[in-house]
Specification:
The chain has nine helices and two strands; from the N terminus they run ααααβααβααα. The protein is mostly helical and 312 residues long. It has a single domain, classed as Up-down Bundle (Four Helix Bundle (Hemerythrin (Met), subunit A)).
């Protein structure tokens, strides 16, 4: 007589619906950015009538992915549904949106100028390095971060900030192209100066953007300390000087419009390493009146006063 074996059904894992959907929205935006960036140089179909429009839409989708990435973690903590599955899924989606998508934008933007074969290979290496460093940055974040971490500071440049720095130049690209167009005969001195500056900046972007991407890749895997923008600027109580700086920055951003986006992201990305380098140089400089390379052994000791001999 055969004895039937009954298998105990395994308990199915349940997942938080809203945070998971927000995280998947991040991945969808990253894939959309890759799709629009890949349309550069091809026959325009659907949205994106020109190469500039395709790059601009791809950059907008990366910024939309940043919004989804910001909301999914907050939604999970608000619903008290944080899990290891959500953390790993978030990193996988971030690798697409903030690693692969900016690298594709970099390659497609620089390919418009038809660089020589050696330069094209160097650009490909920079793009691959950006993707690899973004993946390493996300893996290190998962290993070193606890659930109770307040995220007031980050070790290394966050991958969304690195992606935003690269994509921010595409946000300003249509405005730069419109400013670079020929100024009319009635244009004043200021308009002609702006036109000449924009006309010189546009070709320089072909060389500046790969350097910026390479620097962001190195900063992602560095140990430079970066502050959390939202927690440092908008949480808690601040002085009037802090509020004044914030209002002044918003006013300047509104005045220059799209051109302020790359400036803001470059300031955030490169301010911390430049400040750390300045502190290191300041510490290495000898103080006034101090001999360079002086050690404690070379410092004159106070004279010993004569006293009774010590007992033996």
């Amino acid at each position: 007589m055969k004895i039937k074996r009954f298998r105990i059904p395994r308990r199915q894992k349940v997942f938080a619906v809203l945070p998971t959907l927000l995280t998947l929205g991040n991945a969808a935006c990253g894939f959309g950015a890759i799709t629009f960036a890949a349309k550069v140089g091809l026959k325009p179909v659907g949205w994106g009538g020109s190469d500039t429009d395709c790059l601009w839409i791809a950059a907008i989708l990366i910024f939309l992915a940043m919004v989804f990435d910001m909301l999914d973690g907050r939604a999970a903590r608000w619903a008290k549904q944080t899990s290891e599955f959500g953390a790993q899924l978030d990193s996988l989606c971030d690798a697409v949106s903030f690693g692969v998508a900016p690298a594709v934008i970099l390659i497609k933007f620089t390919a418009e100028s038809e660089p020589p074969m050696l330069v094209a290979r160097l650009l490909w290496v920079i793009a691959v390095l950006f993707v690899v460093c973004a993946i390493l940055r996300l893996a290190r974040f998962n290993v070193e971060t606890d659930e109770e971490d307040t995220h007031e500071y980050f070790s290394g440049l966050p991958s969304p900030a690195a992606a935003g720095t690269v994509a921010s130049f595409m946000i300003a690209l249509p405005e730069l192209e419109s400013l670079a167009k020929g100024a009319g005969p009635d244009a004043g001195a200021i308009e002609r100066t702006i036109h000449s500056a924009a006309a010189s900046i546009l070709p320089a972007l072909q060389f500046v953007l790969p350097i910026v991407a390479l620097a962001c890749a190195c900063l992602m895997v560095s140990r430079v300390r970066y502050s959390h923008v939202f927690n440092q600027w908008f949480r808690g109580r601040r002085s009037y000087r802090h509020i004044l700086q914030l209002v002044l920055g918003l006013a300047i951003a509104i005045m220059v419009k799209e051109l302020a986006v790359p400036l803001i992201f470059c300031i955030f990305s490169f301010e911390s390493p430049l400040r750390a380098a300045w502190r290191a140089l300041s510490r290495s400089r000898p103080a006034p009146g101090e001999t360079p390379g002086a050690t404690e052994s070379q410092t004159p000791q106070p004279p010993q006063l004569p006293g009774p001999p010590l007992p033996t």
